[in-house]
Design goal:
By secondary structure, this protein is mainly β. It has a single domain, classed as Methylamine Dehydrogenase, Chain H. The protein is 9% helix and 44% strand. The chain is built from 2 helices and 33 strands. The protein has a 5-stranded mixed sheet, with no helix packed on it. Strands 18-19-20-21-33 form a 5-stranded antiparallel sheet, with no helix packed on it. The chain has a 4-stranded antiparallel sheet with strand order 2-32-31-30, with no helix packed on it. A hairpin with a 6-residue loop joins strand 3 and strand 4. The radius of gyration is 26 Å and the shape is globular.
């Protein structure tokens, strides 16, 4: 009789018991829960232009109206249906309700309003009037109710329109790199490297404050709820109380600043850099969390566009490598387009994100958002007579959202997961 050899546990082992299987799946779920979530996403819809080049995009608060400026205005509903094309526009701003819009094309300003709303097709914007200037338009802005439009032309001209009666007020006394109007109509502000100027509705300066900036600002945002203005001086982000002319705080990003956005209340600011960093700051200038999209920190992965929902819980960014990133709590979603992302917008309610490269529009539907309490702005004032010392962030805060870093790529996380599960399987089979 042949003696039965004892089981050495090498090959052909006994099948796992029910208890061992339960342990295995418990270890699996525990391991997955410890790895930050990264999800691939696909657009809800894509629209491709023919020969047009997209100059700007805008979206209403609930995402029901989407406008792309590409020589003409392309007006979409939330589901991607093209409602209408309007002449003309290579830049566009839209009121939150989607019922008013201002567009510029060359040196001409166009005002659009919605005289008709259809239940199935969204809002139908129609041109009400246009106004030609003698030089190209640099920037446009509009109040939330659509009653006032602010315009800056290429030279020193700044212009304020009342849309109902088409009354124009102009002034060419000073140069402003950026000219904005707060959405509640309370403040009209221009900024250059040496001055912040507050204007009345008749386009005349009411107050000005001295600045000593190293370069002309490229970004500027006004809060409608508090006298807060955010602007950049090169790679430094500055917060200013425009009512008192005092600086609240400043932070410096690593590398050149490529894109900037702010929630209306000023509770959150998102910045994108030339080396692929996406930084989120609270209303006091503290770094909440960051994400480094480029492992090699190359200039080809610059964050070219950023945007936020009204409460700051949905953050979107686009890169020059064609990546689209959407952050919602712990979850990072990403999509790879074929060309560099030039523009990005988020509806105020965070339900839809619109991204655009040179020829294509990508729409993404977002899931339920994690809502957080807005952080109040801390008013530590420093009078703007000299340039304050630029104190950058030297260390990370102790509490921030878990967002994947360059050393935590999907491949490395998957390898770690498989390694842990493999070890657990061997241990359970040996028992």
């Amino acid at each position: 009789m042949q003696r039965e050899q004892p089981d050495t546990g090498r090959g052909g082992g006994k099948p796992m018991t029910t208890q061992q299987t339960a342990r295995f799946f418990f270890l699996f779920l525990l391991t997955v829960s410890l790895i930050p979530l990264v999800q691939a996403m696909e657009p809800a819809w894509i629209y491709s232009m023919n020969n047009e080049e997209i100059g700007n995009i805008a979206v209403s608060s609930d995402g029901s109206t989407i406008v792309a400026a590409a020589g003409r205005l392309f007006i979409f509903s939330k589901d991607g249906s093209l409602i209408k094309k309007e002449l003309y526009g290579d830049n566009v701003v839209l009121t939150p309700d989607g019922k008013n819009a201002a567009a510029s094309f060359g040196g001409t300003l166009y005002y659009f309003r919605t005289p008709l709303v259809t239940q199935s097709s969204g809002q139908i914007l129609e041109k009400i009037w246009d106004y030609p200037f003698s030089e190209p338009i640099r920037s446009i802005d509009i109040t939330d109710d659509g009653s006032i439009i602010a315009v800056a032309t290429r030279g020193q001209g700044i212009h304020v329109f009342t849309t109902v009666d088409k009354v124009l007020y102009s002034d060419a006394a000073f140069y402003n790199a950026i000219f904005k109007i707060s959405h509640d109509r309370r403040r009209i502000v221009g900024i250059s490297a040496d001055k912040i100027r507050l204007y009345r509705n008749n386009a005349k300066v009411s107050t000005s404050y001295n600045l000593e900036s190293a370069a002309q600002p490229e970004f500027m945002f006004l809060s409608p709820t508090i006298p807060l203005m955010i602007y950049n001086d090169g790679s430094t982000i500055n917060a200013v109380d425009v009512g008192l002319g005092t600086e609240l705080w400043n932070v410096q990003v690593s590398g050149n600043l490529e894109s900037l956005a702010m929630t209306p209340a000023g509770s959150f600011i998102v910045a994108g850099t030339e080396t692929g960093d996406i930084n989120i700051y609270d209303g006091s200038g503290n770094l909440n969390w960051f994400y480094s999209s480029s492992r090699q920190k190359t200039l080809t992965g610059a964050i070219s566009a950023v945007a936020l929902s009204k409460d700051g819980t949905v953050v979107a960014a686009g890169s020059s490598e064609g990546s689209v990133f959407i952050f919602d709590g712990r979850v990072l979603k990403s999509y790879q387009a074929k060309e560099a992302i030039r523009h990005i917008a988020v509806s105020n309610d965070g339900s839809i994100v619109i991204a655009a490269d040179q020829k294509n529009i990508y729409a993404f539907s977002t899931g339920p958002s994690l809502r957080s309490t807005s952080t109040p702005v801390s008013y530590n004032r420093t009078t703007l007579t000299t340039t304050p010392a630029r104190t950058g962030i030297t260390e990370l805060p102790t509490t921030y959202s878990v967002i994947r870093t360059p050393t935590q790529g999907p491949v490395s996380s998957l390898a770690a997961l498989l390694g842990i599960l493999g070890a657990a399987l061997v241990i359970l089979k040996r028992r």
